[in-house]
């Protein structure tokens, strides 16, 4: 089963992010903005500067005490007045990291950023002078698209007569705990196209955090170069990246669960890497890790509904058809059965959602595969827990507008 279950990879130690996107092996046409500008400091005429701990800034996902982002698709959100927003990124920003950002409900724009100042919103940015009804205050949102690279916020700047505005959080929170699948590895815009992001953003009215990292096991073992598994790493602020090891060595900051809104729903998709013979995790170790992990998640989030997702683990051709491999099918169900009387652990059966052609050559879902998973999970959450959909139109999945405007083939 080795051939379809290689789920990750030695995490590349690239010093620099590259923003060329390959689609079916061809260079994808992109329109990334060049936002680099001369440094803006607290004294620069025409600008008002806020520090990274300004109360108006809402950080999404996991950020550490130095305002460095971690894990998959972390974000920043705030309201602002005026027509300009610039951000000064700190020295711990991955060089050239691709970020998505938008104003109000207009489409995401992309730019690659490095340490230094980037002028992201200016009077020519779409959405600033829209006709009524006009969304006020203007919201600014930013997401890191990748799972290993990150940014550090040093300062946020608006024009001198303007200000930042604190936006309230949505009332509900969902947390995704996963590996490369949840973090969108090999999807077009990586974490920003993955099913974790697509579910969280897809609801349109919930806060979400994606603590997922490629190659990571549930069991605390070295898997594909990730030194620790999620039973350890999930309790840390940073992920298992090379970047984290450079900044924190083996002593990451602990994540302060009490200082952040508790998750109402936790969706776990873990075990595909444990299930790979390369990582030496036995089925007994996996099951006992899962049993204790669920207890630990319940301890930090006593009111959360915990959903255990079954694993598809790729497809193989058999005879003149295809079949799903699956991983730890019985073990995951047994963990669910162990806890089900408590009422807070649920089993999401993913079998039948994906077909063999929803998996790309690098063993991960295509963009379509991610959307299928996300759509089913969202409907499951709506029916089971009564979470209504809050998205009203602004795009969630960027550049998935494939169309046909001819007829009669
Ligand atoms: C993005 O990053 C690449 C490589 O780091 C760089 O050459 C390019 O000029 C950057 N800007 C845009 C707008 O793509
Ligand atoms: C701003 O100007 C003051 C007074 O000229 C100076 O002491 C300070 O270092 C400057 N700050 C920055 C960030 O340039
Ligand atoms: C932010 O940090 C600065 C400098 O460390 C401090 O003076 C300020 O009070 C902090 N502000 C908030 C809102 O925590
Ligand atoms: C918005 O209005 C300002 C002046 O009020 C103008 O300078 C700017 O070009 C306008 N932006 C757009 C996108 O139309
Ligand atoms: C797995 O076990 C084999 C044989 O004992 C060993 O060579 C290999 O280093 C182990 N791999 C890991 C990731 O521990
Ligand atoms: C992976 O899971 C499958 C399905 O439950 C099981 O048959 C297989 O033994 C597991 N393999 C490893 C290496 O854990
Ligand atoms: C999951 O769904 C598949 C396909 O419908 C079914 O064969 C399987 O029995 C289900 N598993 C569980 C545990 O219900």
Automatic annotation (TrEMBL):
Stretch forming the signal peptide: 1-19
Phosphoprotein listed as a keyword: no
Domain of life of the native organism: Eukaryota
Pfam families linked to this entry: Lipase_GDSL_2
Gene Ontology molecular function terms on file: carboxylic ester hydrolase activity
CDD domains assigned: Endoglucanase_E_like
The keyword Signal appears for this protein: yes
Keywords: Signal
Record domain SGNH hydrolase-type esterase: where: 176-370
Name of the protein in question: Acetylxylan esterase
Organism listed in the record: Lojkania enalia
């Amino acid at each position: 089963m080795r051939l379809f279950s290689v789920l990750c990879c030695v995490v590349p130690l690239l010093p620099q992010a590259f923003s060329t996107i390959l689609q079916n092996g061809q260079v994808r046409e992109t329109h990334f903005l060049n936002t680099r500008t001369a440094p803006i400091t607290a004294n620069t005429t025409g600008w008002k500067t806020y520090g990274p701990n300004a109360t108006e800034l809402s950080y999404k996902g996991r950020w550490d005490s130095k305002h460095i982002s971690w894990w998959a698709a972390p974000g920043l959100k705030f309201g602002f007045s005026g027509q300009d927003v610039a951000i000064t990124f700190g020295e711990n920003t991955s060089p050239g990291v691709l970020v998505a950002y938008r104003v109000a409900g207009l489409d995401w724009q992309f730019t690659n950023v490095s340490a230094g100042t980037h002028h992201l919103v200016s009077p020519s940015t779409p959405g600033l002078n829209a006709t009524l009804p006009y969304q006020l205050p203007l919201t600014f949102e930013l997401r890191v698209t990748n799972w290993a690279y990150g940014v550090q916020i040093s300062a946020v700047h608006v024009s001198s007569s303007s200000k930042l505005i604190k936006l309230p959080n949505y009332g509900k929170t969902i947390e995704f705990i996963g590996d490369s699948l949840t973090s969108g590895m090999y999807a077009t815009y990586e974490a920003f196209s993955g099913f974790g992001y697509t579910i969280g953003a897809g609801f349109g009215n919930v806060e979400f955090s994606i603590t997922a990292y490629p190659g990571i096991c549930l069991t605390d073992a070295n898997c594909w170069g990730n030194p620790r598994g999620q039973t350890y790493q999930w309790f840390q602020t940073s992920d298992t990246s090379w970047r984290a090891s450079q900044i924190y060595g083996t002593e990451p900051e602990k994540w302060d669960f009490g200082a952040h809104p508790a998750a109402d729903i936790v969706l776990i998709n873990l075990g595909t890497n444990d299930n790979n013979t390369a990582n030496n995790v036995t089925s007994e170790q996996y099951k006992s890790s899962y049993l204790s992990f669920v207890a630990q998640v319940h301890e930090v989030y006593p009111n959360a509904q915990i959903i255990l997702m079954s694993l598809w683990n790729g497809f193989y051709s058999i005879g003149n058809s295809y079949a799903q491999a699956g991983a730890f099918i019985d073990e995951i169900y047994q963990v669910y059965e162990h806890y089900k009387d408590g009422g807070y652990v649920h089993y999401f059966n993913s079998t039948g959602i994906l077909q063999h052609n929803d998996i790309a050559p690098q063993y991960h879902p295509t963009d379509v595969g991610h959307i299928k998973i996300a759509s089913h999970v969202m409907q499951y959450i709506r029916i089971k827990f009564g979470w209504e959909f809050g998205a009203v139109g602004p795009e969630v999945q960027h550049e998935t507008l494939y169309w046909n405007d001819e007829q009669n083939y």
